[in-house]
Amino acid sequence: VQLQASGGGSVQAGGYLRLSCAASGRTLSRHAVAWFRQAPGLEREFVARIRRGAYGGSGSYADSVNGRSTISRDNAKNMAFLQMNSLKFEDTAVYYCAVAERHIAGPMIDADDYDYWGQGTLVTVSS
Asked: Which residues pair with 97 in a beta bridge?
């Protein structure tokens, strides 16, 4: 399974970015997909999650990005996305997409719930 994250970059506070995660080796619609991020000196933290196929619906978000971010999936392209608006300086981090091999009952917001990880894409927000 390979996940390729892209779309990061440098943006001013208040701006927006759309992160992409391209998958090969797994059909994303059959798996929960999540975004995590890790800022320098801090632990990796949950950002957003969308459940697999029939359970997809709306995403689940960390409080820090709720209302400013949208996670989505394009099944035809086998890709997932994270739209981030009204970016803040504290959003600066390396963002990782992740895929869970198994469906797990519960919120699926822990990094241990996910089996496959992309290489990360850097988001830098200047104030």
From this structure: 35
